[in-house]
């Protein structure tokens, strides 16, 4: 919606305040959160070989531990996404971080693989809510100009967490085992909980909740921090038109984007988690020594950063749909080449390019998703879209474990395993090109009716 004389929308106020010190501080705070989240998820993949050895379990049983984490994330994403559209972003985020910090730490002391699976489920329940909320919060404080680029930059902190996870695994697991690795990530999450106390509630959420005076007070504080004039006009916002339910993601004007996002999130997650959960084991099967495996994984983590930055540049040049679609197709191609390559140099080159494009695709997807939903259902939309990736995450480790086991014990080939992930990337790319609605330079909507009208104009 647009405001008239003497009034302004929250989007207009944020656009006038611009990107400044507050948004940079928010980026740092959300970025630290994203580092801890990434490390918490990926450290389990690095720990799995040691967990298998300590508990004397099969790859399929180890896959169940990873699956428990994603099952918890699925429930958490759906639960916390919807709840946070009722209680607010700030409260929801604090509760989710507390959950994954406490139970992530407890998982480092699990006495059996069954207890580890239970504790990882509860850890995942917290993680599942923290991830979509982080992007909803950051998006709602950003001006329209370069919003997509800034959201991709936030996603790039995932690579920092990956680098941290790979580095800690390299240092800790060979000498001390997997338990200190999981404990280190949980302790970082407790630090995140303390840091997040300084971030205010989203003024967009306050405005559509009938608390415009509180929203204006927060915007005045942001303007002062950025060194810009405070907004003087009266804030106006659309009113909520109904309860926050998943059915509202399927109303005309929004359902096309919901269908595209659900398929894209599922496809990229199936491929990504299928590959990276078993990546250390895949390198080992290709003849890499334990030291070279950790070194190669660390190099792949470094390759993710330029992948993100290239996507951040392109997303404002060629748009969200083109960037995501192209990066997904490239991810599929280089995953297939990774499966067919031979020799250390070619294997490492193909895997680096696979990592580059797949993480750039994640960045574009995380940036695009909150732009496609209005404020009143943004956290719900992010939660349910990311929930599709958790469904994929439930199946990917088990499926990868079964296929990996067949490839290593029954004379099979890693080609069959990696080709499945390659196809998943490519299917996601095709769907993005067919159904995606471009949002470059479009203001965020606050209500479902506003969003439907804007999408109708685009299509």
From TrEMBL:
<dbReference type="InterPro" id="IPR005828">
    <property type="entry name" value="MFS_sugar_transport-like"/>
</dbReference>
<feature type="transmembrane region" description="Helical">
    <location>
        <begin position="60"/>
        <end position="80"/>
    </location>
</feature>
<dbReference type="GO" id="GO:0005886">
    <property type="term" value="C:plasma membrane"/>
</dbReference>
<dbReference type="Pfam" id="PF00083">
    <property type="entry name" value="Sugar_tr"/>
</dbReference>
<feature type="transmembrane region" description="Helical">
    <location>
        <begin position="26"/>
        <end position="48"/>
    </location>
</feature>
<dbReference type="InterPro" id="IPR036259">
    <property type="entry name" value="MFS_trans_sf"/>
</dbReference>
<feature type="transmembrane region" description="Helical">
    <location>
        <begin position="296"/>
        <end position="315"/>
    </location>
</feature>
<protein>
    <submittedName>
        <fullName>Major facilitator superfamily MFS_1</fullName>
    </submittedName>
</protein>
<feature type="transmembrane region" description="Helical">
    <location>
        <begin position="258"/>
        <end position="276"/>
    </location>
</feature>
<feature type="transmembrane region" description="Helical">
    <location>
        <begin position="414"/>
        <end position="437"/>
    </location>
</feature>
<dbReference type="GO" id="GO:0022857">
    <property type="term" value="F:transmembrane transporter activity"/>
</dbReference>
<feature type="transmembrane region" description="Helical">
    <location>
        <begin position="92"/>
        <end position="111"/>
    </location>
</feature>
<feature type="transmembrane region" description="Helical">
    <location>
        <begin position="178"/>
        <end position="195"/>
    </location>
</feature>
<feature type="transmembrane region" description="Helical">
    <location>
        <begin position="151"/>
        <end position="172"/>
    </location>
</feature>
<keyword id="KW-0813">Transport</keyword>
<feature type="transmembrane region" description="Helical">
    <location>
        <begin position="117"/>
        <end position="139"/>
    </location>
</feature>
<feature type="transmembrane region" description="Helical">
    <location>
        <begin position="324"/>
        <end position="341"/>
    </location>
</feature>
<keyword id="KW-1133">Transmembrane helix</keyword>
<dbReference type="InterPro" id="IPR020846">
    <property type="entry name" value="MFS_dom"/>
</dbReference>
<keyword id="KW-0812">Transmembrane</keyword>
<keyword id="KW-0472">Membrane</keyword>
<feature type="transmembrane region" description="Helical">
    <location>
        <begin position="347"/>
        <end position="368"/>
    </location>
</feature>
<feature type="domain" description="Major facilitator superfamily (MFS) profile">
    <location>
        <begin position="26"/>
        <end position="440"/>
    </location>
</feature>
<feature type="transmembrane region" description="Helical">
    <location>
        <begin position="389"/>
        <end position="408"/>
    </location>
</feature>
